Amino acid sequence: MKMWKKIVASLLVLTLVIATLNYVPSKTQASQNDVQNYDWSSVSFLGNGSGNQSYTDVFKIAVGQGNPEIVNIQNPGFASEAGIYVTFSDADFGEITINDKATTAFDKQGAGVIFHVSAFKEQYNSLVVKNSAGSVKAELYVYNKNGTSTEKPTETPDPTEPVNPGVVAAPVKVAGYNFYAQEKGYQITFTPVEEAVSYNVYLDNSEILKTVTQSGEYIDASVLHQYADGELHNLYLQSVDAQGNVSVKSEAAKIRVMQETSAASDPADISRIYVVTNDGTKGGSDIIKATKTPASLTIISNDGQINTVNDGGTIKLRGNSTSLAAKKAYNISFNSKKEVMKGKSKGKKWCLLANAYEKTLMRNKLAMDLGAAIGGIAVPEEHYAELYIDGKLMGNYVISEPAENGRSGCEYNDEDTSDELLFEWEDNDKNEDDCLYFKTPVTGVRFVTEDTVDTSSSRYQKWVSTLTTFENALTNTSSDEVLQYMDVDSFVSMYIVNELFQTVDFGYSSVKFYITYDVNGAPTIHAGPLWDFDLSSGNSIAPEYRTYNTFMGQEKNKWFHYLMKNATFKNKVIEKYKEVQPKIQNIYKDNQLGKSQIQKNIDIMGESRVRNYAAVSQGGAGWSESVADTYEQTGWQYSYSTVSPYNTYTYEQHIAYLTTWMQNRNEWICSQWEINPADYEGEYTGDIISQDIDITGYQISTSYNGIDGNMGFRTIYQAESVVEGKEVLELGIIYGLVYGDNPINKQDVVYGSENEFVKSYVTTDAGKIGAVMGTSKTAEYYARTMECSDSLSNEAYTAQYYIRVYAKLSDGSIVYSDVKTYTVYKVADYIYQKNLTPRKSAYDYIYNKILKKVDNTYKEGDFNWNSTIVK
In which band, very low, low, confident or very high, does the pLDDT at 12 lie, cut at 50, 70 and 90? Predict the structure, then answer.
């Protein structure tokens, strides 16, 4: 049977070659005019081996020069997308052009090339393949029945052309952006011409449609109404000087003209992202990973955590396996940096996560929210939104900060003179351009960085040296030396989140770290930012990842395999796991922190989740809540939705599975670490917990009110100017004292409590701090100080406090931060051990007045004089 197929393919190739021998091209390089004038009646449509019926009887191909063998249209195999499969006599390839423009829309394997069908946008297309020496290897003509019609040249003069063109220079870098979603019409941008006073606007072969005077000016949608077909049109500008002289028309820019003039008809119950592409076909089907597609980008906020912004920019596919899914993930990049997430760093690039392999649409967000809640590690902020591309609803997405320097809480010096860098666990066979890989000699783990591509650089050499030194200490599990090379808190948090969620990629890919160096050149490896949790918490084709009773994280990840054999590190993990139990339990059930995070995400998504899975005919995006993504059916299987019984689950069943899995997982881990989950349970009181207010941290002053030796204990807290989208009428802080046998728990720490051990204090301007004390750059920071005299008993220093921030809002509601716990002694111990005091007198005071007073066996430390030296 296979031999028969080969014979048929050879006959098809022979037929095509014979059909082209009668035509001798008049030029040495194919043009679209050659293609249009070719006798296509003698050429059959290409055979379609892709299975995609939309490619049947659509494409023809003819050979103008050379002797390549044309096979048929094939599915992605070694290629990233379907294309026309052509084989050549050798594998020597140089530049490839389509319609005189260099292209990367192809994939090679040996002497075979698949040219992506999506690249042949015109009806008549010239394809030129050169070898590495620049000589033409082959010229091919491609006919696309559904392509954009190519007009034949006409001798009719253009009435808008000047009689004496060229007196004024034409504008360059012309672009047009369609902001129908913002009802702003169309923005025209260009590089201004010095002598020009205005610019005429044309579309296709129109008369003058509008005159603008500066770059960035908007023209009303009604001006282009007659062209509003959702297709691409040619935009031209013409400079006009003060004497009325005009330039020739500028080079054409593509602009998509939509029928819509606003997004008012779209559901407004969730934030929305509108992308209008200025390249490719309608609906974004030509957006690829290799190149950026120009587009207008509009974000309309709904949740109060995202800003409404718009700008020109680009869009491209993102991810590895996710880029192959039918529901694509994307990166968008604005032309200028935008603050999309309120309080977060501005940036051009933002990630649009599709969750194509994850039917609940929330696993990734649950993990990121837990990482942010437990602290100690860089975490990208994420929010739900609906994505529209060229007016088409693509579904429910998560817009995320990228995991890169200066974003997501990740901060290091990436200047050329710095040796600091971000790197990622990439223990596979992948090799990408502009990336540098290093396999450690100790554990054999393979890492990748994009921060440098020069193996001779100091940055690379120090990276290699640091990882080698770290791993030598890592494998000596009886020693704590390894801890001095790492930001321990970040490693603890990374392990807890990944082990709890049993992340499939944890020992394979998407595990990120970065290195910083202190003034003495000593390195610190930081774990994070957290990334990529769609295949986690039981969502896997592999049965072992669907079980919950194994420590898969430390089994698969070599670094954490060794770290969890280090008694000190393991104890830190267990202690933090105890501390954050309420937050972990709050993922799958209501408790003292409020509604479960799973239910909160369901509430936030609301009808957007329903539209994601509704048919297109019903106003939805057309994805399935039960059937696996198309790529998982035809390519590689990832999620549990590819196997029975999960491939028939309803959304509610997926949620029930996730809820039960998370609870079983947490309770099993607790059983292994001798933790009783019931000790950390609390009833849901209906309190509204807001991330807009929080306890920032604690300080100890040994010269309170300017008196040396007078100790004050300060709590720093923060609040955004708008909380939960509403004006704050009153802000304050609540203390709960857990002392002796008094019957108090975290639920008692509420505004208006009548418990004698709970007190509320209203914030005043006297407590405001005029500096940024935490991660939010938009919050106001405040301090509340308790004076501590020498006469305090040991019990006063070890007494436990519950503390939280409250805010009264303009609608009459009261919201709270999470309840935090501290003792003065624990804070003093942390400050002393970390050498965080600015003076030796303060360092000694904390030791003598608190630490040694409470514990007379407390070992005295050495003050770090280096921290006081100006370098």
Answer: very low
Residue burial 467-488, b: 16+ Cβ < 10 Å; e: rest = beebbebbeebeeeebbebbbb
Tell me which residue has tokens 């008012």. Answer: 264
Tell whether pTM > 0.90: no
For residue 185, the cross-strand partners are: 179
Token readout for 599 is: 């239910």
Q: Are strands 382-389 and 272-277 parallel, antiparallel or unpaired?
A: parallel
User: Rounded CA gap, 637 and 450, in Å?
Assistant: 29
- What is the pLDDT at residue 402? 96
Residues shown for the chain = 871
| Sequence-ordered list of residues with C-beta below 8 angstroms from that of 584, at least 6 positions apart, any chain | 370, 500, 577, 666
- Region of 826 please: left (phi>0), alpha (psi -120 to 50) or beta: alpha
Residue 500 has pLDDT above 90, yes or no: yes
666 burial level (CB within 10 Å; 0-12, 13-18, 19+) = buried
Q: Who contacts 866 (Cβ-Cβ below 8 Å, separation ≥6)?
A: 519, 520
Cα–Cα distance measured from residue 416 to residue 434, given in angstroms and rounded to the nearest whole number: 16
Residue indicated by tokens 């095509």: 16
State both tokens at 14. 């022979």
Residue 637 backbone phi and psi in degrees, to 5: -90, 135
Cα separation, 523 vs 487, whole angstroms: 10
pLDDT of residue 5: 34
Residue 26, number of CB atoms within 10 A of its CB: 9
Residues in Cβ contact with 379 at an 8 Å cutoff, skipping those fewer than 6 apart: 368, 371, 372, 408, 409, 528, 529, 530
Quote the pLDDT of residue 870: 47
Least confident of 208-212, 294-298, 813-817: 813-817
Mean pLDDT, residues 831-841 taken together: 84
Select from 142, 30, 80, 600 the least CA-distant residue to 317: 80
Q: Which tens digits make up the pLDDT trace of 214-247?
A: 999 999 988 998 999 999 999 999 999 999 999 9
Cite the beta strand spans of 739-836 per DSSP E: 758-762, 768-769, 780-788, 800-809, 814-816, 820-822
What confidence tens digit (pLDDT) does each residue in 273-318 have? 999 999 988 888 889 888 999 999 999 998 778 999 999 999 999 9
H/E segment holding residue 389: strand 382-389
Least confident segment among 39-43, 389-393, 501-505, 761-765? 39-43
pLDDT for the residue 795: 83
Task: Enter the tokens of residue 624.
Answer: 């399935």
Contacting residues for 407 by C-beta, under 8 A, at least 6 apart: 344, 345, 347, 380, 401
Residues in contact with 789: Cβ distance below 8 Å, sequence separation at least 6, in sequence order: 711
pLDDT at 155: 40
d(CA 627, CA 260): 33
* Token pair recorded at residue 588: 């799958």
Q: Name the strand (E) or helix (H) holding 12.
A: helix 2-20
Confidence bin at 339 (pLDDT 50/70/90): very high
Q: CA–CA separation, 307 vs 323, rounded Å?
A: 27
**Amino acid identity at 694:** D
**271-286 in b/e burial notation, b at 16+ Cβ within 10 A?**
bbbbbbbbbbbbebeb
Distance of CA 645 to the CA centre of its chain: 31
Coil, strand, or helix at residue 799? coil
**Rounded CA separation 290/45 (Å):** 28
Res. 13: pLDDT tops 50: no
What was the pLDDT predicted at 361?
A: 98
Structure token digits, residue 490: 């970040």
Q: Which residues pair with 783 in a beta bridge?
A: 716
State the chain's maximal CA–CA distance in angstroms: 107
Query: Which residue's structure tokens are 């192959």?
Result: 324
Query: What distance in Å separates the CA atoms of residue 16 and residue 61, rounded to the nearest whole number?
Result: 8
